[in-house]
Amino acid sequence: MRIFDGFGQRISLAxxxxxxxxxxxxxxxxxxxxxxxxxQGGDKPKGPRNPWLPPGGNSEDxxxxxxxxxxxxxxxxxxxxxxxxxxxxxxxxxxxxxxxxKSWFPLAVAGIVIVGLLATSVHLVGPQQExxxxxxxxxxxxxxxxxxxxxxxxxxxxxIEDVEGVRSVRIPGNDNQAxxxxxxxxxxxDLSYIVRWNIKDLANYxxxxxxxxxxxxxxxxxxxxxxxxxxxxxxxxxxxxxxxIELDVRERMQRxxxxxxxxxxxxxxxxxxxxxxxxxxxxxxxxxxxxxxxDAARNQARGYAQQVLAQAxxxxxxxxxxxxxxxxxxxxxxxxxxxxTMERVLSQTDKTIVETNNVTPYLPLPEIRQxxxxxxxxxxxxxxxxx
Length: 387
What we know:
Blueprint: H1 2-16, H2 68-72, E1 75-76, E2 79-80, H3 105-119, E3 122-125, E4 129-135, E5 138-143, E6 146-149, E7 156-162, E8 167-171, E9 180-182, E10 188-199, H4 202-207, H5 212-228, H6 233-237, H7 239-260, E11 264-275, H8 281-328, H9 330-346, E12 351-353, E13 362-364, H10 365-375
Antiparallel strand pairs: 1-2, 3-6, 4-5, 4-7, 8-10, 9-10, 10-11, 12-13
Region (Disordered): 15-98
Subcellular location: Membrane
GO biological process, one term: proteolysis
């Protein structure tokens, strides 16, 4: 504690200008206080140089007692002082001067301001873009594609938007989220769809509605619920039913957004998924499989019926043709029909019995056929008498 008390006493003496905390006292000092043990007679006390004193001056080797003004004194007749000398980044750095002796600083500031004004006054609008100009915060005009000019900021501000680019919104935004919609036959269907749109009127898009994207989302959901509420569940799963729903939703959305003057053009609606709720999806799939099997059986029956009907119609047409020939020559037609019938019947049997008067001859047709194949004789079957 004595050490700290002594150090504090030395600091207080230095602040009062009576004694240097580094050693020797001033020339006016009456020798009071602690003197170095090496001081003899009229010799002046020696000690380290006071770092707070500037070089030169009237002090004796810079070892006089410092004042508080010397410690905090930062400028002299020639500007700020630094023990290490001035440099480009030091206290002695000065801004370059013009030939007339004036500073370049005002001109540099004026140049920066002019460049900034020009940068906020010239606007290049792309071929698919449009801009809206606001004067003191109020809408004044549109900017067409090309090079356009406006008053500098903050008098006029310009917002540039892409009006031709196609924007899309997905409902629901999360794939794992279910969007259950009630159908016309009181069933629930899980739908996810995409709405594609762009900007039709940039001024209305910017200033008529607070949040245009949220407005498009709300209009799409309202239109989809209204369209599905007029459609049965089976139609929402079929391709033709989906196309009708998509067209209906697009028309409903456009009417709603035009009523809000939202400045939005609806390009199309695409249904990505139409499934039953997850809780009943297995049972629903079983029902679908059964319906598909029933449809397949019905289609097969219709095909068989059409085949039989076509065959019957062909036979009826052939009979009509034969009947027409029969009316022209009944005897010849009857004989020809008999031969054709016998040929068709006998060609499918191996044994034939021909009844004649008091005799029942047996015709070994297989042997006759084999013999005929070897010798190729002509076989003639005569009709019974009276035929």
